[in-house]
Write the structure tokens for this entry.
Amino acid sequence: MKRQIKKWTLRLTATGLLLAGLLLIIVLNPILTYANKTTYKNYTVFHNKILDPSLLTKLDQATELLKASEFYNPKLRLDICLNDGSKYPTLIRVLRGQAFAWGFYDKVVLQGTANYKVNNVELNGYKWNLTQLLAHEMTHCLQFDKLGFWKSKPIANIPNWKWEGYAEYISRQNADQKDLSKNIERLIVTGKENWEIKFADNSITPREYYDYWTLIQYCMDIKKMTYKQILTDTTSEQIVRQEMMSWFSKQE
Ligand SMILES: [Zn+2]
């Protein structure tokens, strides 16, 4: 009996490892689940339908935003996986959960419905600015590129405000998003009952991410820290927020 159990445990483990391996191969090779790929500059876009050329303009805009990051690497090549009929985005959703998009390793995977003409991605009635969404996810790829797999989330225990706040900080560079005082004001005016914060173009960001972004903006723009310094700094989220609000209260 004991021998039988051992045999079956071994068989189940082997099957599990095989399935996990197969899954990994599919995740790392989007071409297996897409009909087409188009190479544009440093990007390989995976798509099922005919590619809307205005996406390429958005990729250029997102690249410009990334240049504000100390982690920017002009040689980094990224895969952009569109949600236009392939099973790939669904697979990523099953593995990682529902989101507007995911950025990990060297991949950006769109999940919502993209509307290239008005430059947004829609999910559950909410819209995220497409250029800024691409830049947000690409920033995660820059984090992976610079810090390495083991020192990136979710493996490394980096607080969410540092991981997501930085992606928001790099991607939100519109004229009405650059002033920290105005950003904090917008946060206060919106009220805690709202899940989202709305921008001038009617797109949103989750309130939680917006809050993280102001903390990073405070550390970088006001305290003049580098992102590397923020990552190694041990000041807690609560203390940084207190410092930021006391700075805010002294502003005109
Ligand atoms: Zn993110």
The mean pLDDT is 95.
